[in-house]
Specification:
337 residues, alpha+beta, 5-stranded mixed β-barrel, 5-stranded antiparallel beta sheet, 5 helices, elongated, binds zinc ion, EC 2.3.2.27, MDM2_MDM4_MUL1, ubl conjugation pathway
Length: 337
């Protein structure tokens, strides 16, 4: 089997094709939904919306904390409602091919959040579960990189370990108060009478983004197009590989059939030649094969060494010698002169 390379390539291609087509379907589904979603203008009346329209709405407004906002850790004059603190380690690591390459590892990621709402005109919508959003846009308010001070010993150890630390990056991101946000989700009236937006119960994507709807649609469209081309590309490669593998298997089969045909032909001519060479009439009884009692004895059976059968009968006798019943390990043509 020389097809392992192609088969492994086909397997990997199928996996990538599957992932790309899933992303393509996801983005095309999201795009469709956002295009059809109910856009709430200024001071909309939720009670006028049908059940279906409430399932997926777009609302734009200014972010405002309900209660006390979060103060920026490094920039106390900036307040927000969702805070993400990330600590990343930057290192240079030797990869499989022996080269040193930059590497980033997230050591820690923490979120802080306070309840918040989107306000436009008189209308207030409370935003629930922002961390459940498919897209949650935050602004970077602080980013710091501390270079590691490595001793000579650290360098030596790092060289042998294959990992050398370069430094630590700390990033603080905020969903800032006052920023204009487009939120897309399911709208409902909470038990406390407030209007709220939550992750859609139908499994539709939930967005909390700084992009206006037109930009979000464009971004989804771009991603959809990218993954469509990738799906075509890997689909095409898959088909090409399948054709190559099928063609090779077919050729191998054809060659095998031709070989068998040739072997059969040779066998037939050999048999015929033997038949012509035999002069069956003037053989004595103990010169004839013990099985068919017609052809001359032509085969020696090993290990026992009995010369007792003709070549025709030897094809069917593979286990025991017909004379002494000892197991057959080998057979060969016997030439009695
Ligand atoms: Zn025979
Ligand atoms: Zn024997």
């Amino acid at each position: 089997m020389d097809n392992w390379g192609e088969l492994i390539a086909l397997g990997i291609d199928t996996i990538i094709f599957g992932i790309c087509s899933r992303f393509y379907l996801k983005y095309s589904y999201s795009l469709n939904l956002v295009e059809r979603a109910q856009r709430l203008g200024i001071n909309p009346d939720i009670s006028n919306l049908s059940e279906e329209e409430r399932n997926y709405v777009i609302y734009q407004g200014d972010v405002k904390a309900i209660g006390k906002p979060i103060k920026g850790l490094n920039t106390p004059d900036i307040t927000g409602v969702v805070q993400r603190l990330t600590i990343r380690e930057h290192a240079i690591a030797r990869n499989a091919s022996g080269f040193w390459a930059d590497q980033k590892n997230t050591i820690q990621e923490t979120y802080n959040l306070v309840p918040f709402m989107l306000k436009r005109g008189e209308m207030i919508i409370h935003i629930l579960d922002p961390l459940g959003a498919d897209i949650l846009d935050l602004d970077t308010v602080h980013n710091k990189f501390d270079n590691s001070s490595l001793s000579v010993m650290d360098h030596v150890v790092g060289f042998f370990n294959g990992v050398r630390q370069r430094g630590i990056e700390t990033t603080e991101e905020l969903l800032k108060e006052g920023s204009v946000i487009t939120a897309i989700g399911e709208v409902s009236k909470g038990l406390d009478g407030n209007i709220q937006l939550s992750p859609p119960s139908q499994g539709y994507p939930y967005f909390i983004t700084s992009m206006p709807v037109s930009s979000l649609l464009r971004k989804l469209e771009e991603q959809k197009t990218t993954y469509r081309w990738l799906t075509y590309l890997f689909g095409g490669i898959g088909i090409a590989l399948a054709v190559i593998i099928t063609r090779r298997l077919w050729l191998e089969r054809q060659a095998k059939l031709r070989d068998e045909e040739l072997k059969k032909k040779l066998e037939a001519t050999r048999k015929e030649r033997r038949q012509n060479a035999r002069s069956g009439e003037n053989l004595s009884e103990n010169e004839r094969c013990v099985v068919c009692r017609e052809n001359p004895k032509e085969i020696i059976i090993l290990e026992c060494g009995h010369v007792c059968i003709c070549e025709d009968c030897s094809e069917g006798i593979t286990k025991d010698c017909p004379v002494c019943r000892s197991p057959i390990t080998n057979k060969a043509a016997a030439f009695i002169s």
